Amino acid sequence: MKQILSLLLLLVSIAAQAQTGKAAQQVAQIRARYQEAKQMMANEGDDWLTQNHVVVNATYMCPGAGPRDESVKIYFTLDEDEEAEDYVRTPYLILRSYNVAPRKFYEEYLYDAKGRLIFFYSSNDSYESEAKDESRYYWQGGKLVHQQKQGETLYTADEAKEMSEHFLQTFRMLVIP
Q1: What three-state secondary structure class fits 138?
Q2: Nearest 10 degrees: CA dihedral of 143, 161, 119, 115?
């Protein structure tokens, strides 16, 4: 009986290590995509003909919190669709920053080449310490493969995906197909 139990524990341990290794590999691929996205942003020229991004800025009053400044930047690729004989704009990175009273918030949404969310990052000033509250979620094929959290979590993984969909809908309304 002890041998069977030991064997089962060994098999579970091996399976867990395989999953951890697979998740680490997937996270490494997502981080490589992130570096690629940052390079694509850096390669945009100063000329409006070479810029593929949309910026939305809003300033408004929040009762009890004062003025709120919000900025959303949506970076996208312009890809040729040979079947439709047209161009397709595919967002690859969305950056959002805003404040609530003196507290500052920042978010990043990273997409794969097909426009699916693969990474979410949020950071904000903590109420309780000098350290920032941070959350990171990594997806592969729509499935959450890894998460990291420090301090307060503003959004769950499902809420981050929902916010991502709102930004994609906004992009589709702002940019002429």
Answers
A1: strand
A2: 90
* Dihedral pair phi/psi, residue 12, rounded to 5°: -65, -40
Cβ neighbours of residue 156 under 8 Å, at least 6 residues apart?
none
155 SS3 class = coil
Positive or negative, the Cα torsion across 14, 19, 20, 24? positive
Amino acid at 8: L
CA 96 to chain centre: 10
Distance CA 105, CA 133 (A): 10
pLDDT tens across 123-145, in order?
998 767 677 889 999 999 889 99
**pLDDT tens digits, residue range 54-104?**
899 999 998 888 899 999 999 998 877 777 667 778 899 999 999 988 889
